[in-house]
Amino acid sequence: MGNDSSGDGSMANPYKTIRKGCDQASPGDTVMVRAGTYKNSDYGDGDIWTGTHVTRIIVNGTASKYITIQPYDLEEVIIKFDGVYGFLLQDASYVRVKGFIFEGVADEISQQQADEAWGLYKTENGEVHDLESEMGIDINNSSLIGTSKDKPETLNISKPILYNGRALVANKSHHIEFLENTIRNVPSAAIRAQKCDYITISRNTVYNNTYWTTQGVGAITISEATVKPTGDTYTGVKVIISENTVYGNENRLISWNPTKSFIHFEIDEGTGIFLTRNNNSYTQGKMVIANNLSYRNGASGIVCHFTDDVVIEHNTVFDNGTSNHGLPGGIGVNSSDNVKVLSNISYSKTNKWAMGILAEPVTNLVLDANIIFNNSGSVNVIRETPENQLTSRSGWTKVDPLFSDAVNTDFKLMSTSSAIDNASSQSNQTTDYFGKIRDDSPDIGAIEYGVFSTDQYDATSVVVFPNPVNDIIQIKGTSIQKARITIYDIRGRKQANFKRLGPNKIDVSKLASGLYFLKLNELVYKVFKN
């Protein structure tokens, strides 16, 4: 259906490709994608070395008029790819990508296939090499684990794309929002922002990714963040990773870096949420990781690596370290400055640590009101270095957080949990993982106890529309004439710049673009402002 040459983008005469629709978009437009499965043009051609993207997006909205790309009317749109990217946002700005399903081919690749391709690479002149043969090793030899060996020079080489595809990527872009997407079965990273600024990654479900790459990645990754646009002077929070569900993302291969002269034979990648190599390029601006569930990933649940000015708060991290050879299995901070770890629950396996430092220097580290636990296992629950004696600090308590049913991934708190009412006074999250308003004595972890059931959102007959909204929110099913109305931004700050227009309308035209929480008495709605 559709034609990029004769189509005009209307329902009756649509474009054929997502790229064409995006290219025609102006600031404030919404690109609606109809139901179906969209693939890269060379999908299934059997070539492991090359593979294009499904869609490359180079568009620019404005601060008051984001360009939104989303499925039409909640239809199911699957971005299926075996190439280099699902969506690549390149040099884009003020763009929102919402509600897609990204699906790779990781579940179609066997461990044996991945092992056989482990050391393959191509030089610039197209010659194919096999690092395993060149080094005279068997990658499946268990005696290699824990050792390091020199490798041949591999600068300016390429690896097979089939095993290294990434789903949703922003590069050299700013003011980008990735919201409510599902990313699964991707051989490499699920969501990645590189050399970007003003990034919001929120309410995505990310699972069973990163299996077959030798690049060494996390499921959600911020790397080499760079202040954008040029001349920007804002020093507050600009990168937000919040309310995501991240699980089952493992690295099942030993990674190797083409620029390094050696390989250390351990699986040490596969982190759920990963900040890496940002402190040299990100000269101003803060990052927040908050209200996420990160569980049963291959390495740690959350890692802050070579990244300064970060707040990690109100996350629930559980049972990570499923495939790594090392001991990380919780929240880690490495070679970073001015990091606050507040009000998190980190529950690790008995043979993994729940909180720790892997690499120095770590300076100006603040720990407050965290719960850590590994059931008194064979490994210390804390991993420290001589420079940072975490066991001598306050800021954490070793105790079972008492989840309702962690085995079945129900991380709500039991009524007797010591996490209740004990969050840090330094925490700034006024809503939780479900978007519920936290009470005056908030709880530790991602999920607030006993405020009101999320089932109420679905059960209510009250409808808030349009969503996204430009100017006027309309309410169907009740009168708001006497309702208590509060609007919060994604950082939990109350907004005053709105007004009621009679019994069924709210004027939000003066709010900046972004995600907001509209609370009508005890009902909460997530609203996107264009």
Outline the structure in words:
The chain is mostly beta strands and 530 residues long. Among the domains are: 104-108 and 157-413; 462-529, Immunoglobulin-like (Sandwich). The chain contains four helices and 44 strands. An eleven-stranded parallel beta sheet has the order 2-5-8-14-17-20-24-27-30-33-35, with no helix packed on it. It is globular, with a radius of gyration of 23 Å. The two termini are 29 Å apart.
Largest sheet: 11 strands, parallel
Low-confidence stretches: 452-460
What is the residue-averaged pLDDT?
A: 93
User: What does the overall shape look like?
Assistant: globular
Oligomer: single chain
Percent of residues in helices = under 10%
Rg:
23 Å
Structural category: mainly beta
Strand arrangement in the largest pleated sheet: 2-5-8-14-17-20-24-27-30-33-35
* Measured distance between first and last alpha carbons: 29 Å
Q: What amount of the residues lies in strands?
A: 35-45%
Q: How many DSSP E strands?
A: 44
Count of discrete alpha- or pi-helical segments spanning 4 or more residues:
4
Which SSEs are present, and which pair or pack?
Layout: H1 18-23, E1 30-33, E2 36-39, E3 55-57, E4 67-71, E5 77-80, E6 85-90, E7 93-98, E8 101-103, H2 111-117, E9 120-122, E10 128-130, H3 131-135, E11 148-150, E12 166-171, E13 174-179, E14 182-184, E15 191-194, E16 197-202, E17 205-207, E18 220-223, E19 237-242, E20 245-247, E21 262-264, E22 273-276, E23 286-290, E24 293-295, E25 302-305, E26 310-313, E27 316-318, E28 328-334, E29 337-342, E30 345-347, E31 353-357, E32 363-368, E33 370-373, E34 382-383, E35 396-398, E36 403-405, E37 410-413, H4 455-459, E38 463-465, E39 472-476, E40 485-489, E41 499-500, E42 505-507, E43 514-520, E44 523-529
Parallel strand pairs: 1-4, 2-5, 3-6, 4-7, 5-8, 6-12, 7-13, 8-14, 12-15, 13-16, 14-17, 15-18, 16-19, 17-20, 18-22, 19-23, 20-24, 22-25, 23-26, 24-27, 25-28, 26-29, 27-30, 28-31, 29-32, 30-33, 31-34, 33-35
Antiparallel strand pairs: 9-10, 11-21, 36-37, 38-39, 39-42, 40-43, 41-42, 43-44
